[in-house]
């Protein structure tokens, strides 16, 4: 599959005509990373924008006491290191491949030039950046205001907003993330997440079916 075929499937570039996709493909390069491979080091500030064609990437930053703080887990069709659009050296983050990953990489200058000629893509990018800021604010408030069960509930609701599918009965179904992934995202242990999920299921808030979670009650589970 060539670059153009990958790009047309990405939400950020949906609706672009073939000529524009070819222009975008011309400024991209492809990189591959094995599971556990380091894509970015915190001291290796990059002026690139990364789009995930395949795989998953975890971005982290070190706290003042040296502990790893997970910023986000990015999946297929997502992008990261968007801070480089503001400054040439980007954000001081680490990026690690959670599984075998293939990326499309754009240099900051080339990508900004492309955005200046394609305002529709620029508008979509701004919308996604605003959504990320709002999501980060919700995550910060969750850590301060909610217990583990509340943080798990908010995480699932955020996931439902991003990729949930409505069932015939009106519930929302999402792909079940691993307990470890949830724990990393909300700042707790896998064991605490396991207990919270079991409690939510026994209370009729969710139903776990194989690799899917059905959210039965969409405004519950937020007790601090």
Radius of gyration: 19 Å
> What's the CATH class label of the largest domain?
Mainly Beta
Spans of at least 5 consecutive residues with low confidence = 220-224
Tally of individual helices: 7
CATH architectural grouping of the largest domain: Sandwich
Note the gap between the termini.
48 Å
Mean pLDDT: 82
Level of helix content?
A: 25-40%
Strand content: 25-35%
Number of structurally distinct domains? 2
Helix vs. strand class: alpha+beta
In spatial order, strands of the major sheet run: 1-8-3-6
Quick one: overall form? globular
The largest sheet is: 4 strands, antiparallel
Number of E-state strands: 12
The CATH homologous superfamily of the largest domain is named: Jelly Rolls
Element string (H = helix, E = strand): HHEEEEEEEEHHHEEHHEE
> What name is given to the CATH topology of the largest domain?
Jelly Rolls
Describe this structure in words.
The protein is an alpha+beta fold. It has two domains: 3-132, Jelly Rolls; 146-215, Orthogonal Bundle (Arc Repressor Mutant, subunit A), CATH 1.10.10.10. The protein is built from seven helices and twelve strands. The strands form three sheets. Strands 1-8-3-6 form a four-stranded antiparallel sheet. A hairpin with a 5-residue loop joins strand 4 (57-62) and strand 5 (68-74). The longest helix is centred in the middle third of the chain and has 27 residues, at 119-145.
What are the salient characteristics of this protein?
2 domains, Arc Repressor Mutant, subunit A, alpha+beta, globular, Jelly Rolls, disordered C terminus, four-stranded antiparallel β-sheet
